[in-house]
Write a structure and sequence with these properties.
single chain, 183 residues, mainly alpha, Butyryl-Coa Dehydrogenase, subunit A, domain 1, 2 domains, 46% helix, binds flavin-adenine dinucleotide
């Protein structure tokens, strides 16, 4: 697939300025711009062809980021962070997870987030205390997360992911609460 980087600047210049201030003031996510950016092929360019993406790389992803941010960093981030965390799924996920979770990101049907930071674990990720414990074919994930980009906007995709996970043999259930600190 050809890389259409220059078009990303054209798209941003044509669409972002009109609503950028309003999005900032209302703290709103420009969902329609994200969907359109997906349709135009700007989102998830690093996702391989096997999983519905164009199979480009992170360099191209960075170039699109640069062009979007030239026009408006807030909207640029909102749109392109929609795949945040999927890099790890592509690198370390099972085939089943990749097939289920990656194509919807390219099509504009899902938004991901990566919940790494915890109230007492920022830069030092070795202090993370959230644990996923396998219990009877499921995982109980117990912990507290903070600063999760897309933690609010990803709600519909969480429903989708929950649905997808239900279809997978090893289901995941969520039991979030504040865990006891390690001594
Ligand atoms: C807008 C925004 C979005 C974010 N989105 C996400 C997200 O989607 N998912 C997620 O998991 N997290 C997210 N974060 C969290 C972000 O990754 C953390 O803020 C980051 O890991 C730093 O952690 P901290 O704020 O606890 O700072 P700390 O780790 O407490 O660091 C405080 C200060 O100490 C410095 N410092 C830390 N360790 C060292 C060291 N060893 N040597 C020298 N200096 C050091 C740091 O540079 C910093 O200046 C987001 C944060 C922001 C602001």
């Amino acid at each position: 697939m050809d890389f259409h980087g220059p078009l990303s600047l054209q798209y941003a210049e044509g669409e972002f300025p009109e609503i950028a201030r309003e999005c900032d003031q209302k703290e709103e996510f420009p969902g329609h711009l994200w969907k359109k950016a997906c349709r135009l092929g700007f989102v998830g360019v690093f996702i391989k062809e096997d999983y519905g993406g164009p199979g480009l790389g992170f360099f191209e992803h960075c170039l699109i980021n640069e062009e979007f941010w030239r026009v408006d960093p807030g909207i640029g981030l909102s749109i392109l962070a929609a795949t945040f965390g999927s890099e790890m799924i592509q690198l370390f996920g099972t085939e089943e997870q990749k097939n289920a979770l990656l194509p919807p990101l390219v099509k504009g049907e899902a938004i991901t987030g990566a919940a790494i930071t915890e109230p007492d674990a920022g830069s030092d990720v070795t202090s993370v205390i959230t644990r996923a414990i396998p219990v009877e074919g499921e995982y109980i994930i117990n912990g507290t997360k903070t600063f999760t980009t897309n933690g609010t906007t990803a709600s519909s995709s969480w429903k989708r992911i929950a649905k997808v996970l239900k279809q997978l043999p090893s289901r995941t259930s969520w039991e979030l609460g504040r865990p006891k600190r390690r001594s």
